[in-house]
Amino acid sequence: MAGKPDSLKPETLAANALGWIDEKTGAIVPAIHPSTTFLRDADNSYDTTGRVYSRADNPTYDQVEALLNTLEGGQGALVFSSGMAAATALFMSLKPGDHVVAPSVMYWSLRNWLNDFARTWGLDVEFVQSADLDALAKAMRPGKTALVWLETPSNPLWDVTDIQAASDIAHKAGARLAVDSTSASPVITKPLAFGADYVMHAGTKYLNGHSDVIAGALVTAADDDHWNRVKSVRKNLGAVLGPFESWLLLRGMRTLYPRVRTASANALDIARYFEGHPGVAEVLYPGLQSHPQHEIALRQMTDGFGGMLSIRMSAGTAAAIAVAANTKVFTRATSLGGVESLIEHRASIEGADSPVPGDLLRLSVGIEAIEDLIGDLAQAIAVASRGA
Ligand SMILES: *Cc1c(COP(=O)(O)O)cnc(C)c1O
């Protein structure tokens, strides 16, 4: 299984999936291990393989976890059956009574889970505008706050939080910092390098990249007791990834860098083109100079600003829905991070208490030709404004 040296560039390590070679067969692509159980030694131990049962020990995880750990610069990685499973495992590794702080605008399903399940389970959940570092500092309760959760850039307004500053605030209060880095991916941001203790990914999105796997992952900065607790949550609550999905995730990650770079370049071109367009009131994208945290984005984001942006239509909610109804290259669907471009009216999927404005369309920009993407949006905006 000897692989490539870690000193190689991340895009090399990703393309070669760390260069692992199967020792038995010489295969350069790993096997899928559906086995649920593993041979026990004659002396009744499990010393030979160390593997007992697949809920904890599936060998198909090893390479994808090692690759993600290397790309994030971590001390351990775990794959999960979904992004939600990864995120909730981290919260479930805390103790009832612990105080946790999360962003007021963040990935909707996790916000709902925190508001509902996590509160009744006993976590003391507080939401703050976490890009506002003063508000974050005020929310800290030293000795009580166990975890600060960040999402940057955050769904679907794409606020950028200064991870280094947030981790200083969290650590000063004795709390750990976790970053949902799904929309950035390790290509664009490496939260552990800015002091975060954990990185979470919906592997469903950029890591896999092809809208055909639900998966999640956590990466840790320290292989400590708390990380063992997270491992035990995965094992005992059983939110494990299937071996086939794990294999697909690794395959998807081989092209992570060129996919994310192309999507980021396309997103920046779209953001620049439609900023100032008469049908568009505002473009929300960290790569624009007009973005309120553009300076932080320049420091913290590398290789572009990601493939996610939102546009707000001048003519309001009906115009936004009409644009989504009339695109032909952008597909009308939720989710993000695939090679194909998606468009979504977020407010209507999030429901009545959503903080998302009705005139907003969220775009997950793919890797198609930029002329086709800009042309498609322009014609849909033209059709929508004739109808309005
Ligand atoms: C999709 C997503 C999740 C949840 O991931 P699933 O794989 O759908 O469970 C969490 N955070 C963000 C930012 C996401 O986009």
TrEMBL record:
Modified residues (N6-(pyridoxal phosphate)lysine): K205
GO cellular component, one term: cytoplasm
GO biological process: transsulfuration
InterPro entries named in the record: Cys/Met-Metab_PyrdxlP-dep_enz, Cys_met_metab_PP, PyrdxlP-dep_Trfase, PyrdxlP-dep_Trfase_major, PyrdxlP-dep_Trfase_small
Keyword flag Metal-binding: no
Presence of the UniProt keyword Lipid biosynthesis in the record: no
Molecular function GO labels: carbon-sulfur lyase activity; pyridoxal phosphate binding
Cofactor requirement: pyridoxal 5'-phosphate
Pfam families with a match to the protein in the record: Cys_Met_Meta_PP
Family listed: Belongs to the trans-sulfuration enzymes family.
Protein name, UniProt field: Cystathionine gamma-synthase
Protein source organism: Skermanella aerolata
Taxon lineage: Bacteria, Pseudomonadati, Pseudomonadota, Alphaproteobacteria, Rhodospirillales
Gene behind the chain: metB_2
